[in-house]
Specification:
Elements: E1 3-7, E2 20-22, H1 30-36, E3 44-49, E4 52-54, E5 65-70
Parallel strand pairs: 1-5
Antiparallel strand pairs: 1-2, 3-4, 3-5
């Protein structure tokens, strides 16, 4: 029962190897997985599970691919 976590952009350094497969994430919410990975939930602007946007309280299933999209900053001050 595995779930693949794929961080994008500024979130990549927070996950060893740029992405990871978690064998025990099925049945947990996205928020629970973020907490286990020690990723601040406030840094994640959007979550895609199997290419569909979902809320962070979505329960993950075996074989899911979770893409974590960060907020984009920049511009003039």
């Amino acid at each position: 029962m595995s779930v693949t976590i794929v961080p994008v952009g500024l979130l990549q350094p927070l996950v060893p190897g740029g992405s990871t497969v978690l064998s025990d994430a099925a049945g947990k919410t996205v928020s629970e997985v973020l907490a286990e990975l020690q990723i601040d939930s406030d840094l994640v602007a959007m979550v895609l599970v199997n290419s569909r946007q979902v809320p962070k309280d979505t329960v993950l299933s075996d074989g899911d691919t979770v893409k974590l999209i960060p907020f984009v900053g920049g511009g003039r001050r």
